[in-house]
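Okay, can you check this protein?
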Amino acid sequence: MNLTYYPYEPFSIKSDKPTVIETSNHEIYQKLIQSFNDFDSAIKFSTDNFELVEVSKALRWFGDAFMQVDLDKEFQANIYKQIQNDITDDQQQEIYNLVQQLKNKVTEITYMFDLPLEVEENFEMSKIIKLCNVHFDTQVKTSPYGIIETILKTANGPLSIK
């Protein structure tokens, strides 16, 4: 894939690797951000054969790390799926037992109301994972360097982004 900003020569980027672009020129930086957000067409992407590619298909733009990228919004669904994929049978059984204890305690409390209440017996791992609200640490989410590091780790790790 090629990235072109006229009048400069196109430069090649690997589509299967994260690419970090650094510039100290404010105007170029502004054009990059506007183009990546589809507000400007100064930046063009093309295949190795120089066939144009839409910006939205050429890259996954997370935004300016100094303007705070929402890591949870970007990756939380993938994290939940990965937890579900990686959980062992023993861990799942242990969680099931803990959930049963929790439901029993809630059921015990509902008896005090003297109403025909039920606590659902259904056990869904996806709901349990969401209940735990796994999310990125606040310190990482407020640090531009932490955001960049997390995106790079995520792109190359078990949650790899496509």
Remarks:
- The chain has seven helices and four strands.
